[in-house]
Design a protein that fits this description.
The protein is α+β, with helices and mostly antiparallel strands. The protein has two helices and four strands. A two-stranded antiparallel ribbon has the order 1-4. The longest helix has 10 residues. One of its GO terms (molecular function) is electron transfer activity. This is Ferredoxin. Ferredoxins are iron-sulfur proteins that transfer electrons in a wide variety of metabolic reactions.
Length: 62
């Protein structure tokens, strides 16, 4: 499973790292990044929750 953040769409709300800090973090520009794009199997549910919770649908986890 891989995670991707579209930085052009991201509004920098910080929700994704608060839900799944093992995969997402805030970059220096205030936008989210997938610091671990290869989602570990033990946090797949959290990564999918972060995807579903993104207010602007900037996250893709598949």
């Amino acid at each position: 499973m891989e995670a991707y953040v579209d930085k052009d769409t991201c509004i920098g709300c910080g929700l994704c790292p608060s839900i799944c800090e093992a995969v997402f973090e805030m970059d220096d520009d205030g936008k989210a990044i997938a610091r671990n794009p290869n989602v570990p199997s033990d946090v797949e549910d959290e990564a999918k929750d972060a995807e579903a919770s993104c207010p602007v649908n900037a996250i893709s986890v598949s």
